[in-house]
Amino acid sequence: MSAKTFTALGVAAAAAAFWSQKPAIQTVECEAPPKKDEKKKSSKTAEDDKKRKLEGLTPDSPMRLRMETFNKQLQAEITARLEKLDGVGKFKVDSWNRVEGGDGISMVLQDGKVFEKAGVGVSVVYGMLPPAAVAQMRAQHPNIAVTKEAMPFFATGISCVIHPHNPNAPTVHFNYRYFELGSEDGGEPVSWWFGGGCDLTPTILYEEDAVHFHRVIKEACDKHDPRYYRDFKKWCDEYFYIPHRGERRGVGGIFFDDLDDKKPDELFAFVQTCGKAFLDQYIPIMERRKDMPFSDDDKHWQQIRRGRYVEFNLVYDRGTKFGLLTPGARIESILMTMPLTARWEYMHEPDLKAHARLMETLRVPRDWIPL
């Protein structure tokens, strides 16, 4: 079945078949060691949400539970499709739990036929946010009151990074997330917002691939707000910038954060549309590029570009830095975005005859779709 005829129904069926095979799931703990005399316990919100799940979710269920459910369904659909495209590789599945409340599923395919590494992770976290972190959030959310006390929070997100073997096939990333602050009493959260985005990182620039990737996500954005693609594309070009290299990580996509300008259901619908668009964004590109011939020079250039990818993720990416600084965070899940292989060469100079168009694009972002 081609990517063009791979319908949403087919994706759902593939996901159901994937989970029916009951892949081996390893359950791990991701808790930081408790301090002396400290006893960790699940939050009231987390316990109440367990009961809500047992009773069954409805359109009126808390947004956090609906977003969590969507993330896990999307993870199953995408990993099923990626396994089918690879034909050989299988995802390793790790399920993890937090005492304070929450869980996650990390799924990683390594050394497949098509993909060197593909990771799709879902996290669900209940916890207490320190006063300093609460103060930082007030800059974007002034409705948060000044406090010297820690505040309960909830966060859930899905993150995906794919590194193909073939240098003609681009690396891709997407992430969609939801955050709540202060809902421990079971009432409405004090503040909430959505964030996320997607971006394409080619080693060898094929302009038709960049146009396709942007066209699909623009169509998704346009279903909800005509400003979204224009604004979030610009934000993406600014966010994925590597200052010490003077270049972007790739050819962009969209990026947004602290999004709370509409009703929660409207923004949830937007995030769902973007998440469901991913397979249409990426699979047609992979089907065009995965079997193309390539040279040793192409592979060498891919390793150099992956070095830039690692530099951005470890030095500038907000999610990576937040995760590495969070007590009890699962480091393996945070670093699953890293490629298996990368290369740094002293004073490396790119072959501008072969890669001038790519380097120009990384330094000066282009409008791939007329705005």
Automatic annotation (TrEMBL):
Belongs to the aerobic coproporphyrinogen-III oxidase family. Coiled coil: none annotated. PANTHER family: COPROPORPHYRINOGEN III OXIDASE, MITOCHONDRIAL (PTHR10755), OXYGEN-DEPENDENT COPROPORPHYRINOGEN-III OXIDASE, MITOCHONDRIAL (PTHR10755:SF0). This is coproporphyrinogen oxidase. One of its GO terms (biological process) is protoporphyrinogen IX biosynthetic process. Its EC number is 1.3.3.3. It is an enzyme of class 1 (oxidoreductase). Keywords: Heme biosynthesis, Oxidoreductase, Porphyrin biosynthesis, Signal. Homodimer. Residues 32-55 have a biased composition (Basic and acidic residues).
